[in-house]
Amino acid sequence: MAAIVSIHSYRGGTGKSNLTANIAYQLASTGKRVAVIDTDIQSPGIHVIFNVQQDANLPCLNDYLWRKCEIEEAVVEVDVTMAEGMNKLFLIPSSTNTGDIARIINDGYNVELLSEGFERLCEKLSLDFLLIDTHPGLNEETLLSIAVSDKLLVILRPDQQDFEGSSITLRVASRLQVEHIAVVINKIPASLNLEALKGDVESAYGHPVAAMFPHSDDLMLLGSKEVFSKRYPGHQFTREITTLSNYISQV
Amino acid sequence: MFFDKIRRYLLPVAIFSLLYGGLNFLLSGLVLPGADFTTFRPQLLIPVVFGLVVNPWVGGIIAMAGNFFGDFLLDYGLYFWPWSIANFFIGFIPGMVAWWGIRNIKKVNEFIMVLVFVFLGNAIAMFIGFTTHVMLHGDATLLYVLRTFYVPGVISNSYILMLLLPPVLVLLKYLKLNIETRAMFLFLLFSLGVLTIVVAAVFWSQFNSLTNLIANQRIENGYDVLQQMIAHLFNWIGVALLVILIAAGSLGYYFSNRFMKPVMQLAEAANLLKQGQWEEKSRISIPRVNDEMTSLIQLFNNMATEVYQREARMSSEIEQLKLSIDKKKEDKIVKEITETDFFRKLEEKSNKIRKGKNR
Q1: What three-state secondary structure class fits B287?
Q2: Distance from the Cα of residue A6 to its chain's centroid
Q3: Do A140 and B342 touch (CB under 8 A)?
Q4: In chain A, which residues touch B (CB < 8 A)?
Q5: What pLDDT is attached to residue A80?
Q6: I need a surface site. Which of B38, B42, B289, B311 has the fewest CB within 10 A?
Q7: CA-CA-CA-CA torsion sign (B198, B202, B205, B207)
């Protein structure tokens, strides 16, 4: 049975899409069937990391939400060089067309369609994991994504606003009875003590910290262009991504 | 004790003693024209270098054994034996700087100390040599010998060592080149080079006219006049060497204070900054001279202060971060989200899904 994993951050710029892409790649490289759905309809971005060119003629998530197509028609196979034992990686992109984005924001859509889409995707693609790259904040589609998820990763940077916002997300997620909730801390300044930070966050939230990523400008620059862990399999960042994807497959 | 000091170096001692003696034999013709005793002896480098780099005993033994060997080659036998004893000090005395903790030259005062001990080694060794020689053979008065042969001998030896020793020590990494030692080293080479040219020119013109006068029998006792002239010339070379040593030392000190010290201070402060241990009191004091170095120090001081303050600000912000999650504000927001119809429906829906999965 497929596990639906929401990856969320309360504010933008936490590196959520980047981490999602890397987790997806790592899961797929261990032979899992993985799809990533970009529900960040207002500001889609994960396709850039996967180097997926958007074709205006091909259906995407927006077309499904406007009932123009079935969800499985919007699936794109990500062209990652296949390592041995690696499974396919699927992406359901959102439209980057500004007109489409404006229309979604103005007219809205039936949020219920999203959860139906998730279920159908899991079934049609016989997925092991469906990763949902959510929109920052707690709007309706994000709340819905969390509500239907088996697992939730909350990504935050160690700063005041992320700290407060993530606390809200975690409380709401607990209300929605998400089974496995974990925190991921990204862009940690080199001056911070990782162990102490982990202890502080875990005791403040009452949820485990599944992974911690120290900040690096170089990494962020490279990481937004391609799947970093694929390019640099021996890097410390990649090791932490592996830890995180193992955590997701095991809990 | 001394055997312990040389046991490990028996082979090099043997080889270099033979080399020293061999060079004494081969270069014995390298006499200053007209001055019997004043030979140029670049082979002196061997015992001096061993004395400095290995230890005094090794340097001393090489000079002593080598001199015996050279005398043997020159067919002197043991006639000049006090000279071999005296030679010991040429290698031994410079090596004594190690007793004051100088194992290599990194600073201008170490540089000067080594040169002074090299000079002392020659002065003492040759004094012992000449006095014992006069006492044993008594063919001239001590004062005459000292004035005519000793002073030129010491000066020519000091000159050749001051010229040749520093480059060899650089090659052997005994002399570490940095701003101050480099300045002193280059100045030393340059001034000794100029001195050599001047002396050669003076000597050549004087010597030629003197030999002409002697040849034409215009002067009586021409030999004595030549000796006096050479002694006179060497006195001036001695004065020039002293001036050069003082000037090189001053130049070294100048570079040390003006450049080396601030560079070291900057490096130390930068290291403190890197380790996060820099404080306001680590600011480097501004030199009175106002030049590029002063600007650099000022710039660094200002930069370090800014980094320090920024870090202090950041760490206090991180401190705050840990403390404040505003419970009341948070409760209010959570309530706003969860008390909507949409959320209630979502809760029901999620309930249904969870139950469905558990079945």
Answers
A1: coil
A2: 6
A3: yes
A4: 1, 115, 138, 140, 143-144, 147-148, 150, 158-160, 163-164, 167-168, 171-172, 175-177, 179, 189, 191-192, 200, 204
A5: 67
A6: B289
A7: negative
The chain B residue lying nearest A174, using CA atoms, is: B347
Q: Which residue among B320, B325, B346 places its CB closest to the CB of A147?
A: B346
Cα A61 to Cα A95, A105, A146, B36, distances in angstroms: 7, 14, 18, 107
Residues 6+ apart with CB under 8 A from B65: B13, B17, B20, B21, B84
Quote the CA–CA distance of B335 and B320 in Å, as a whole number.
26
Dump strand ranges (E) for chain A: 3-8, 34-38, 76-77, 89-92, 129-133, 151-156, 180-188, 209-214
Give me the phi and psi of A188, to 5 degrees please: -80, 125
Phi, psi of B22 (to 5 degrees): -60, -45
CB proximity list for B139: less than 8 A, separation 6 or greater: none
Q: Contacts of residue B337 in chain A, CB cutoff 8 Å?
A: 138, 143, 168, 172
- Tens of pLDDT, residue by residue over A151-208, are 999 999 988 888 889 999 999 999 998 989 999 999 988 777 888 888 888 988 999 9
Question: Which of B:289-328 have CB within 8 Å of A?
Answer: 311, 314-315, 317-318, 320-322, 324-326
HSE, CB side, 13 Å, CA atoms: give it for residue B132: 15
- Quote the CA–CA distance of A124 and B148 in Å, as a whole number: 112
- Say which of B314, B317, B326 has its CB closest to residue A164: B326
Measured CA distances, B51 to A175, B30, B86 (Å):
85, 25, 15
Q: At B98, list the tokens.
A: 């190690």
**Mutation test of the interface with chain A: which of B332, B353, B357, choosing the one with the most A Cβ atoms within 10 A?**
B353
Residue B322 has a pLDDT of 59
Give A-chain residues touching B343 at CB under 8 angstroms: 143
| B296-319 average pLDDT score | 82
What is the radius of gyration, based on Cα positions, of chain B?
37
pLDDT reading at A243 higher than 90: yes
Rg (CA), chain A: 17
SS3 A13: coil
